Amino acid sequence: MKNSSMMLFFTMTVLSVILIINSNNWMSLWMGLEINMMAFISLIAKSKDHLISESMMMYFLVQSMGSVMVLLMIILNNSLMFYSMASTMTMNVLMMGMCIKLGVPPFHSWFPEMMSKLNWIKGLMLMTWQKIAPMFIMASCMSNLLMLFIILSVLAGALGGLNHTSLRKLIAYSSINHMGWMISCLYFNSNLWMMYLTIYTIMMTPLTVWMHYNKIYFMNQASVMTKTLTEKMVLSLNMLSMGGLPPFIGFYPKWMIIQSMMENGSKIIIIIMVMCSLLTLLYYMRMLTSMFMMNNYMNKWMIKNKNNKTMKMMFLINMMLPLGMYMFTF
């Protein structure tokens, strides 16, 4: 695919999300979702292999199902006569459609499979930018199903990746767990989900760029490719921040959500979400333990690496995380 075509489809992906955010009726919102779907499918169709073809077809079927739910919501909203009945049913249908598009449990089985077939850069877009439009639509409506989706997301994200060694699947299940926290923002404090997604994107971008640059897709590859102690420390700081360990900035949005939930008296759900976050932290600790246990036969601090600029960027961002935590807190 030519660079001009890539720029065209990337621009369409960005503009479609802007169209959805600025929509004032359901049909323009549905059009934005369709444009976003077709642009992202064209964007990932760079290489011609069977894995990309499977991921394209999987994404098309899942997103089309979610768009059909949006159309069904529009039809129900116009056909039902009683307003209370129409509002409750249509909001539930719309919420399920957006959960299908986001890969929220119990509609999550496509998300890790598709992540395992994409490269890291396209997977980063799927985990970050492609979540903005469905989350914005979910923020505009409230449903009684939100609490169920919160519990299922944190449980499926925590338990789903325990038996996997593929880093792309582990990151996908961790993203599902983070989705539970973002959905809880909608239920308790609707202004926090944008901040949570922004911080999640800042944490994920250097990690995925480093893994894409070194072609790391499994746990044992991460242990082999981190040759210097500097790389190991930078990678461990990033992963601990993604797991939500204080005092890093990854803990800050979770802390804000916990405070909002405490004010509403949802203590049992807080315990479930925190315990599931500890299980997702186990993913990263399992990889970091094997990485630090490998012996270095010589001091490699002064060795120049080919990805020196990438490591400097990761080191700068990760060193800013504890400082950012204290700046936000005090």
Q: What features would you describe in this structure?
A:
The chain has 330 residues and is mainly alpha-helical. The chain has a domain at 121-329. It contains 15 helices and no strands. The radius of gyration is 20 Å and the shape is globular. It starts with a helix and ends with a helix.
Task: Provide the helix percentage.
Answer: over 70%
Radius of gyration: 20 Å
Unreliable spans are: 297-304
Relative strand content? under 5%
Count all strands and give the number: 0
In angstroms, what separates the terminal alpha carbons? 49 Å
Along the chain, the helix and strand elements come as HHHHHHHHHHHHHHH
In round numbers, the mean pLDDT is 79
Give the SSE layout.
Blueprint: H1 3-21, H2 26-44, H3 50-79, H4 83-102, H5 110-115, H6 120-127, H7 132-139, H8 146-159, H9 167-188, H10 192-214, H11 219-225, H12 229-242, H13 251-263, H14 267-293, H15 308-329
Helix pairs in contact: 1-2, 1-7, 2-3, 3-4, 4-7, 6-10, 8-9, 8-14, 9-10, 9-13, 9-14, 10-12, 10-13, 10-15, 11-14, 12-14, 12-15
Keywords:
single chain, 330 residues, mainly alpha, 15 helices, 0% strand, NADH_UbQ_OxRdtase_chain2, NAD, electron transport, respiratory chain, mitochondrion inner membrane
Quick synopsis:
The chain is mostly helical. The protein has 15 helices and no strands. It is globular and about 65 Å long.
